[in-house]
Amino acid sequence: MYGGGERGRYVALTFDDGPGRYTPRVLALLARADARATFFVVGDRVRYWPGLVRAELAEHAVGNHTWDHARLPGLGARATHAELSLTQSAIVRITGVRPLLFRPPYELMSDAAAKMARALGLTVILWSVDSGDSAPGATADTVARTVIAHLRPGAIVLMHDIRPASVAALPRILRAVTRLRLHAVTVPELVALDPPSHPQLFVTRPSGRCP
Fold this sequence. Notes:
Helices cover 42% and strands 14% of the residues. The chain has helices spanning 23-32, 43-46, 50-59, 77-95, 111-119, 140-149, 164-179, 187-193, 198-201; strands at residues 10-16, 37-41, 61-64, 101-102, 123-124, 129-130, 156-160, 183-184. The strands form two sheets. Strands 1, 2, 3, 6, 7 and 8 form a six-stranded parallel beta sheet that branches. The protein has a two-stranded parallel ribbon with strand order 4-5.
């Protein structure tokens, strides 16, 4: 899934690769704006920042982003199972809640990963707007301009709470969400409030990266 149905006034801001030292700032900004988001966490970071994952889940949604940000197509079935299941276990251990969402690192999937995600009850979530915060030379200004230019109903926005450019851009993005009369919600809320179309549920990128 890479977006909502575009019939409501909702957008989903998502943050990958955390938690980390900038995550508290992201949570504070979201709270101040009365906005909700989805955090796709990396398993081996969860054990170092358990309080942040609990804080994320208290007001937002948390998803699985593998154990160590692996390139899944290069792994065998056993290693793929470990990437997903260990992360599930780490999140459950500290929160008591089993994630239902999965985002593959680098947007790269494999048959083994797709099978394992289904077995674990995980829905694959991609995005419709890439903030570009991972690009060389990314700044708060470039990230804010990129996201704001593509804010529209049903959008799922990719950012990273470990990237200073996204954290610095977030106040401008949140103000734009309000100015455009949109509401920032979690991915599960987006699905419930503005269900995606059938093509949005089963998508192959032009790159062929993620079925």
